Amino acid sequence: MIPIKHCLHQLLDWFQVHGRDLPWRQTYDPYQVWVSEIMLQQTQMERVVIYFKRWLQRFPDIDTLAAADENEVLNYWEGLGYYSRARNLHRAAQLLAGQGGTLPAAYEILITLPGIGPYTAGAIMSIAFNRDYPVVDANIERIFSRIFNISTPVKSRANKTFIWEKAGRLLPVGKSRFFNQSLMELGALVCLPGKPLCTNCPLAGCCQAQHLGLVRERPVLLPKKKSVFIEMATGLLIRDGKILIQKRRADDVWGNLWEFPGGRLKEGESPEQGVVREFYEETGLRIARTARITSVRHSYMHYRVTLHGFYCETTADEKGEPALHAAQENRWVTFSELRDFAFPAGHRKLIDFLRESGARGQKP
Is 37 an active-site residue? Predict the structure, then answer.
């Protein structure tokens, strides 16, 4: 076995050859590194690159982001999920805009900003400013669990502490930008969860799990949460060519996003019954007729959601405006205007179905 410190120069050489050409690596601009790190939380790289480029075209710097309306920020984030990340970016930008509009090269300040924890602060310090801060993400946890043959759950508090300490000790002085990225890149391209490419790994000579034939048994993971299946129903109410949408409360799931009224079905309730009940509970409007549009599926965390969509028509004597029993705001908008509002994934899939099928604007 080769001592791991002897392998580090091979890792850095490997990164110079095999590191991906990512847009934020062109200049290592602190704002761009920050945005990329927030986007990369819970989101795959391929999707992030697409959204990052689009984001930078509209919000090229902190001042532009700070001045934007929250709804527009959420609209540009739509499709990445976990919308609190976008709201925190926006809030942090507004704080920074009043302090010169630049990202401070100080860990103690970064960690006080909304949405920036120890990992993100360390990543910004090391990648944007090349300061000697270790970082540990899921990729690095997996690599270290194999290099040091960690035989207990990698997410345990003791193992987390061990890995962070090792990452700090192994960090080459003055080379944190490339060292941290090389570890992340190795985990993304070579030290894969299911089928690691050990023959291509610059750390193979110092990997204890590889030496013992235990690579596929590492890392040891805690049992996954069981999937929770949820059925929901939502309705499109159309009046004078416009559709009713409402803005979710800020403290709700998908806070500040827009939606069509609806909600979760009760036990034994049909989707048709559910949309009528939910519509009345949320808006005070009584639905007389419904017509099924389609059902769409989406997932978040360990939840698996089926959303049933319906056209809705109120009773003949129901001419009042909708109440705000479950939302902070509502609007009547045209179908084409729906693109200007940020919706949860299920509702956006329903809109996309209507656009692609040409069925927009129909009634029961």
Answer: yes
